[in-house]
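Many introductory courses stop at the sequence. We go one step further.
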Amino acid sequence: MRDEARSYSPAANLPPPLRRATAPSSAPVVAAVSAPELWLHIALPQLPLELATRGMAERRACALVEGTGRKQRVVLVNSQAASLGVRVGMPLGAARVLGEFTGLARDPQAEARALAGLAAWACQFTPRVSLVEPDGLLLEIKGSLGLFGGTAGLLQTLRRGLRALGYRGYAAIAPTPWAATALARAQRQAVVTTIAELPAQLGALPLDVLRLAPEQRADLERLGVRTLAECLRLPRDGLGRRFAPGFVSLLDRLLGLAPDPRTSQPLPATFETRLDLPWEIHHAPALGIAMERLLHELAGFLAAQCGAARRLDWTLVHADRTLTRCEVELTAPGRAAAHFALLSREKLSRTKLHAPVRELVLEVREILRDAPPPAADLFDPRPRVSTENWPEFIDRLRARLGSHVLHSLSLVPDHRPERAWRWREPASADKSSSPRSAPSPREAGAARPLWLTRAPLPLAERDGRPELGGPLQLSRDCERIESGWWDGSAVARDYFVATSARGARLWVFRELSGHRGWYLHGIFE
């Protein structure tokens, strides 16, 4: 057979390992060999429109409009606008007659930022994530299937995550990147695991999924070619001469006949994302939906690099371009979107807006790397009932009451009871870094009360014995403390456990110098 007669028939063009020897009288049979890679493409056809509306709880009719003056036309519509009869390609003036809807302009820079943010979020599924501009992502998932329960479990987790982010996408899996892209763009949410299946799965797809140049598309239509199957039946070398070798190379990569390396998107060192609002927000609680979208994006970013956040920095950009900043501190580093959302809602609920908000920005500048994952049983697939741990409880109190009203105690290495402790922020709690004083009361064999007076209170005396509503009964043992001579606040005391006439146990001491008076310094019960 001459070279001009060679076509993209499934058996003739498969790599050698995929061919099987057959008798001359039988049709060629292709072996179903598992592909070394599996690619998942996420197509986001509504991305330009969803960028503007995903942060709003209120569902309004919206359409994306391109062009100027009388040439303005509708290029994308949401379901609410479609219910009014607005269709893609309709002039803006004609669409306005059908009903009231919000016309939005395209923002290529915002689309590029959103796609890069989605790539960072998708790295929680696999480290090999590539951009397919302007509205797609490619993930190599062969090594991740066991972690998510196979292709079905991975797709379910992925779709649930996209809904939480406010996007609607189409996902397809194939052994080559271009095949996954073509299937997803055709909204064929197929799962193809072997190269032998590709010709049958791709044949019925329109050529539009390849997004060819208009000249190439027109030439193929003049030849009567409208589907991939019709294109693959054409002589291979003839295609190369008429449409340039690049087109033949594309078809080779589509079918797995040539390598198709993709560049993985690197993870940024810090996290920053923003969300533009299509209309003004006058009350901070109404920002809840937009806030949750950004926090789900943050949670995926942190999970991708086993990181945890210690502080969230929110910025509200107002219509007059002024800024309102809100900081959310965490007691312990975390990565749970639900906990982030609870704290942020509490913080924003106490924020008064001096002007309407048009943009929401979330930043995390310091990320704790290699944070331990949440405790879970890897061998028990049953969902566990989540309970609020101590740091989360502290976070919730601080977010609701304010960080200045909640403190905890820390030990100080000083024998003087009034100087052996200090207030500290709960966020700085760390057992390993808390200084420890001399032996604790139990280790020293001495009793110490839980409650101390603000300052030692002088006691009445009779015949050298202390009194408080009557004579106090002193224990036979005492604890002597002599310390502080180096800082000008020296003490020399003998401490006793005393019992009052009403049965209260008190902690009292007698000075060993000066006028040698008695003082009350603590209460046991």
